[in-house]
Amino acid sequence: MKDTRTILRETRAALGALTGARAKKNEALERIAARLESECAAILEANRLDVEAARTAYGDVMLDRLTLTPERIAGMARGVREVAALPDPEGRVLRRVERPNGLVIEKTSVPLGVVAIIYESRPNVTADAAVLALKSGNAVVLRGGREAFRSNAAIVRAIRLGLEDAGLPPTLVGFVEDTDHRSANELMEAAGLVDLLIPRGGAGLIRRCVENARVPCIQTGTGICHIYVDASADLDQALDIIENAKTSRPSVCNAEEVLLVHRDIAASFLPRLHDRLVTEREVRGAVPVELRLDPRAAAVIPGVPAGETDFDTEFLDYILAVAVVDGTEEAVAHIARHSTGHSEAILTRDGKNADLFTARVDSAAVYVNASTRFTDGGEFGLGCEMGISTQKLHARGPMGLEELTTYKYVVRGNGQTR
Fold first, then answer.
1. What is the pLDDT of residue 58?
2. Helices (H) and strands (E) in the chain — how many of each?
3. What is the DSSP letter of 240?
4. Residue 210's CB: how many other CB atoms inside 10 A?
5. Strand partners, 220
6. What SS3 state is found at 397?
7. CA-CA distance, 230 to 232, in Å (whole number)?
């Protein structure tokens, strides 16, 4: 097993193979997609072993994050081809200025260099991170969790075979086999070898990276996502949106965790919410949602009294914290106190309240009459994503190709001096 710094040095040394290789990059992505398809059986077998080993430690919702299916692998390959079809951000002139002295100054998009990503549980991240990095001209070092080690290794093998098929060095995609905390710390401290570190996982991982990294670090992922149902909302539509945002895949960061309901509709809407998320789901054999209620909501429907931390928790499960508020202003204030800056939504037919909400809520994605589940690189037309940034520098929201570049100034003259 190679040590982390050796892997980093090999990956950085391979970077030169991508310089000026626009057509070669697209060919590599097409070859990688084909390899993911041809290696599907091997990837599924590796994933089966991971899932079996994790059953005693994980619940069904978290196992869903870990599990691959033929359809999910086909989706990986489809995402790779979608990224290949996107415009190449490398070398794009972002701004051009001609100065009075004749200098021509071009602000030009360039890759970051070596991007390292530390992630947990979700093996699809392995493919997403690799192809976004390669298309944008970067090399990548992947460090997944031990629970998905076999799956990640099988996917990396397919990616590296695709790179070799295209005549590119497989070391453009580094894979850290050591899943001990030590290897994560080594990536955080690899100044001069890592140009950007992206932690993609739970709040503990992200906090550890942000607090300890000696390399530039992007905060991603943690999503305490809110939906506010305004007094004027279409309540049938609201129930559909809330059920989708909470139950379509509760283990992901864009799932709804908190529901806020206007006091004027609480008495009529909350019983319908309970019927939809609890009673009807029990009848059809689906997992019911546990409602954790503030005192005003608890006065209307049955549920679990909300604890002190329930409005500050990313449940990643069939659990929803519910509160009744006096209006849009109070909803905005509640979100400001409890949100992680990921995704929030207002359900309303009042244009002024929608405008107030979108102007005042300071999150990466703010929705009007739509599910928070759309905060995703594929849904935003980015092909896939490196992660969802909840900070404001250098990127915010789903990170695609453009967010994996920086820029430099290219200045052309004909003898000017100052």
1. 86
2. 15, 16
3. H
4. 15
5. 389
6. strand
7. 5
